[in-house]
Amino acid sequence: MDKFGYAPGLIRYSTENALARGWDFRRMVRRAFRPRVFVYLGILGIVTVALGVSLYLRVPLKVDVLRDRSSLAREVEGGRIENTYRIQIMNTQEVARRYRIGAGGLPGLAVASEPEVEVPAATTQQVPLRLQIAPGVAGTGSHRIEVEVRSTDDPAIAAREKSVFLVR
């Protein structure tokens, strides 16, 4: 500053407000650590912990069950009643997984298509699903069912999705 003819202390770590009021470094530090700052830090800490917990507890599997609208219930060999669905399985992990497909909600409801499917890492795969029941198990109309997709190597990774089974 002397070399250029300026007053000493023009370049320093300070604020315009502190310069105008003549505060020293100790006073600026005391002003920075007031109760409002601690409240903001607490809120930020709570949000950070909530984000971490939600990431830790998230299920790395998403399932969507779409009923095939082009065909209603149909009768197949043995008089069994069959409905067709399309399952969209989203594996959000960075490792390939094998999933077992099951269904419940009606007595004797069984998976007639391939019960296991392999989904590559971080991909979505559509799988056809056929569900069957014995004749006379359920009355005519729509019945609520639940389709479950569960990982074969880690039982904690599972998803359930509701749908309907039509009987005519």
Description:
- The model has no long low-confidence stretch (mean pLDDT 91).
- The chain is rod-shaped.
- The strands form two sheets. Strands 1, 2, 3, 5 and 7 form a five-stranded antiparallel beta sheet that branches. A four-stranded antiparallel beta sheet has the order 6-4-8-9, with no helix packed on it.
- The protein has helices at residues 16-21, 25-32, 35-57, and strands at 61-67, 74-75, 81-91, 97-104, 110-111, 116-119, 123-133, 141-151, 158-167.
- Helix content is 22%, strand content 39%.
- The protein folds into two domains: 16-57; 61-167, Immunoglobulins (Immunoglobulin-like, Sandwich).
- The protein has 168 residues and is of the alpha+beta class.
List the helices and strands and how they pair.
Blueprint: H1 16-21, H2 25-32, H3 35-57, E1 61-67, E2 74-75, E3 81-91, E4 97-104, E5 110-111, E6 116-119, E7 123-133, E8 141-151, E9 158-167
Antiparallel strand pairs: 1-3, 2-3, 3-7, 4-6, 4-8, 5-7, 8-9
Provide a brief overview of the structure.
By secondary structure, the chain is α+β, with helices and mostly antiparallel strands. It has helices at 16-21, 25-32, 35-57; strands at residues 61-67, 74-75, 81-91, 97-104, 110-111, 116-119, 123-133, 141-151, 158-167.
